[in-house]
Amino acid sequence: MPSQPGKTLDSFPNPRPERDYTIHMRIPEFTCLCPATGQPDFAELHLQYVPDANCVELKSLKNYMWSYRNEGAYHEAVTNRILDDLVAAVQPRFMRLTADFYVRGGIYTQVVAEHRAEGWHPAEPVVLPPPVRQ
Q: Which of 20, 42, 58, 93 is the most buried (most CB within 10 A)?
């Protein structure tokens, strides 16, 4: 197999470090194991971040996510661990990880974890009027 699961997260230099911009990633096939039953838990992860000097490299991110397939983890713990590992790898200005776990026993779980670099403040949002229709 050319790729293997692994915990290494690689990065590359941000092509526009002077600008705040947001990277959105949708990871629809996250799987880990329930630590109580050993059954698989499935989730769709949504990663949003404002990079600083580095961006996360996608192949390493894919292999990193794959590495959880056979690990037992509570939803809250695995979401925070992934966020911590990503923050350590790329040192973003801001990062939010939302984990939407699929139904288990009639319950959906959503865990949202955030990181904000010390001293970083987002720019004021720009609100534009709706387009004029003719």
A: 93
Q: What is the mean pLDDT of residues 71-97?
A: 97
Residue 9 lies in a domain: no
Give the tens place of pLDDT for each residue, 16-59: 999 999 999 999 999 999 999 999 999 999 999 999 999 999 99
Q: Where are the alpha helices (DSSP H) in 20-68?
A: 58-66
Q: Establish if 128 belongs to a structural domain.
A: no
Domain count, the chain: 1
Q: Which residues contact residue 93 at a Cβ distance below 8 angstroms, ignoring those fewer than 6 apart?
A: 20, 49, 50, 51, 52, 116, 117, 120
Whether 104 maps to a domain, the answer reads yes
The residue to which tokens 């630590």 are assigned: 35
pLDDT at 133: 86
Q: Identify the domain containing residue 84 by its residue range.
A: 22-116
132: left (phi over 0), alpha (psi -120 to 50) or beta: beta
How far is residue 51's CA from residue 35's CA, in Å, rounded to a whole number? 33
Which residues carry out catalysis? 34, 41
* CA–CA distance, 64 with 79 (Å, rounded to integer): 13
Q: From CA 39, how far away is CA 102, in angstroms rounded?
A: 13
